[in-house]
Amino acid sequence: MAKYSRVSGSVGLITLQNPPVNALSAAVRQGIVDTVERALSDPKVKSVVICGQNGIFCGGADIKEFGSNMSGPPLVPMIHAIEAANKPVVAAIEGSALGGGLELALGCHYRIAHSKARLGLPEVTLGLLPAAGGTQRLPRLIGVPAALDLITTGRHVTAAEALQLGVVDQVTDHSTVDAAVKFAQSVAGKPLDARRISTYPCPRPSDLDALFEGVMEKVRQSARGAIAPVACVQAVRAAATQPYTQGMEREKELMATLFTSGQARALQYCFFAQRAVSRWSMPNGARWDTSKPRPVHKAAVIGLGTMGRGITVALAQTGLSVIAVETQEKQLMEAKQAVSGMLERGAKRRGVAPALDRISYSRDIQAVADVDLVIEAVFEDMGLKKKVFQQLASICRPGTFLCTNTSALDVDHLASQTHNPELVVGMHFFAPAHVMKLLEVVYGPRSSPQAVATAMQLGKKMGKISVAVGNCPGFVGNRMLKPYMEQAFFLLEEGATPELVDRALEEFGFPMGVFRMSDLSGLDVGWRVRKGDGLSEPGAPSGQPARIRQGRRYSPLGDLLCEQGRFGQKTGRGWYQYNKPGSRVARSDPWLHSFLEGYRARHGLVARRIDNQEVLERCLYALINEGFRILEDGIAAGPEDIDMIYVFGYGWPRHRGGPMFYAGMVGLGKVLERLEHYHQAHPDVPYLKPCSLLWRLVASGSPPLHKWREVIKKLHSQL
Ligand SMILES: CC(C)(COP(=O)(O)OP(=O)(O)OC[C@H]1O[C@@H](n2cnc3c(N)ncnc32)[C@H](O)[C@@H]1OP(=O)(O)O)[C@@H](O)C(=O)NCCC(=O)NCCSC(=O)/C=C/CCCCCCCCCCCCC(=O)O
């Protein structure tokens, strides 16, 4: 809807009304068309102001409408009518002017923004382009390079930057509507020809071809297969090389391709899933809206290795007081220096003062006695973590939340070391912890809803996408990684190379294939876990075949590399070779290839040709199958939780929506059929056996993802 009133005698004020973000739904568009017509036909009205209610101008087109038959007046002619008006129209921008919201403002003759407002064309992040004239007006207004930057990245700019770029005409610290009304009065009756952006010539940089080639190359590299950024460049190129009307035709044509694409569906799904995961629930019925978090003012971090340092930075940047504890003097000194460096670099980037004085360092764990919440981040060893939890239980004042940053260990077992297991949750950060967006909040059977709510809220404050998950080995993310990596190892045994597997996964859209990732994070990490699980030597019972452990197929390839000291980048050798330890540029290693040949020969394995499709199906479907098991077990409340964990923590390409969304796109029947096929070929690999939830979903006609929870509920009620 849009409300109309006449203010200050001669200004028609149009207020967009569609909470919470005044998205341009059919009703809002109709409201704008009607009220603009009314203002223009009222002889008492000399100028017009458009604003949004509740301190937000407009969050853009209504994304929820994209999946349905769109009705109501289209945006493009609506904005043209505003631009063509014979009375000045001023946009009063508070809060946000995004996507169609900014395009609406660009159709106005003047734009006045509040100093706290943010503006942008984020359509590319939804798999689209600014198809209400944004790709044609913005370059005409601010030049091609700046427009390309905003449109291809979708980044939001502050009012100050918008003013500098020329997107807005004025910035105010006071009431934006009052300023806009005053301004509208001052320009009433003035000529408007020079204010219609569509009539501007597009500034043509002299090196146009080189500029577009360079941008296209950069965009293709960072897009990892996403098509919208490429289409955005093509649309802006049309603005730079063609008259406005033809540019608009090109914009429409490109949008038509994007609008119905699977990538747009995936990215729009991610937009809503990202918000849905904050509405968490636990199997006992506890929920986000009935559980009250407790405020956290002072927190402590125990253990200042890589993870502890990142967590300390993330907490301090949130404005909390942090006590950082490390018992080893040398480690403590190194950590202090590293943390200060990270804070200083971060503060410089954001143009603020570094939060150095928020942190106090100590070698004595007693220093944490009066904090509200502790995050333990010591070495991943159950014995050591148990000891720390016992100490914390006796040191901390009653009511302190005790959290562990374990990436796979039993949170409930740690809780049992304390007097108040209900105050214990996992807070599983991802490295580097001050940068990575994902936080798994792990509840055990005894964790209280308040502890979960508090950890979730703290995560949000740190700018994380926090996902609440149940307690099981590896939780959600690392549990699903196991079958994925296992398949990659098996593929090497059967004839693939690390390069072949990685290429297939990188072409799919992962920033790094499984072996390059393993080299980066260190092969010894998995080795230690396998040793702990009794899989790797010396735990394996003698006399059993090397490639069978605990009754199932096992590949000792990773263990064999570790035995040679090949831990990945840090040792300069792993699945690839590096110029020197710590170097990041992976090169093929002939040694590894002949090692694989020798290994196959020793075990009587004959290498066969493996193609990209098999790599993707085996690795991804095994991972997805485990995702279904996780849903079946109630470890994740819904597919969105799994998808956001993979998108924000494991590099799953966002334009493919996450593993569970991807399974729906491929077709659950097809995923089931391929898993069955591979399980028949490899009956000693339980991860390839399709799980019962997948069977159940296919039997119920492969319902869309938002209906899976009903099937899961039914399954649980029958158990
Ligand atoms: C910054 C925000 C605006 C606010 O952030 P915050 O305060 O933190 O609040 P949130 O939690 O994010 O949001 C609150 C709730 O609001 C929901 N929301 C937000 N924005 C929208 C929206 N735009 N539409 C619908 N709903 C929205 C959000 O989901 C929350 O609800 P819930 O918790 O999920 O229940 C922030 O919200 C934000 O960044 N929003 C998104 C901004 C954005 O991306 N805007 C761009 C939208 S796309 C657009 O504008 C496109 C314009 C041009 C398109 C022209 C369309 C023409 C179609 C032509 C088709 C031609 C093809 C023909 C094909 C054929 O031939 O058939």
From TrEMBL:
Which terms are listed as keywords in the entry? Fatty acid metabolism, Isomerase, Lipid metabolism, Lyase, Multifunctional enzyme, NAD, Oxidoreductase, Peroxisome
- Residue ranges of domain 3-hydroxyacyl-CoA dehydrogenase NAD binding in the record: 298-471
Coiled-coil spans in chain: none
Residue ranges annotated for the 3-hydroxyacyl-CoA dehydrogenase C-terminal domain, each copy included: 474-578, 615-702
Entry EC no(s): 1.1.1.35, 4.2.1.17, 5.3.3.8
Q: Which InterPro entries match?
A: 3-OHacyl-CoA_DH_CS, 3-OHacyl-CoA_DH_NAD-bd, 3HC_DH_C, 6-PGluconate_DH-like_C_sf, ClpP/crotonase-like_dom_sf, Enoyl-CoA_hyd/isom_CS, Enoyl-CoA_hydra/iso, NAD(P)-bd_dom_sf
Primary location: other
Q: Which Pfam families match?
A: 3HCDH (PF00725), 3HCDH_N (PF02737), ECH_1 (PF00378)
Write down the chemical reaction(s) this protein catalyses. a (3S)-3-hydroxyacyl-CoA + NAD(+) = a 3-oxoacyl-CoA + NADH + H(+); (3E,5Z)-tetradecadienoyl-CoA = (2E,5Z)-tetradecadienoyl-CoA; (3S)-hydroxyhexanoyl-CoA = (2E)-hexenoyl-CoA + H2O; (3E)-decenoyl-CoA = (2E)-decenoyl-CoA
Q: Which GO terms describe its molecular function?
A: (3S)-3-hydroxyacyl-CoA dehydrogenase (NAD+) activity; delta(3)-delta(2)-enoyl-CoA isomerase activity; enoyl-CoA hydratase activity; NAD+ binding
Identify the PANTHER family for this entry: 3-HYDROXYACYL-COA DEHYROGENASE (PTHR23309), PEROXISOMAL BIFUNCTIONAL ENZYME (PTHR23309:SF49)
Subunit-level organization = Monomer.
Can you say what this protein is called? Peroxisomal bifunctional enzyme
| Organism field | Lates japonicus (Japanese lates)
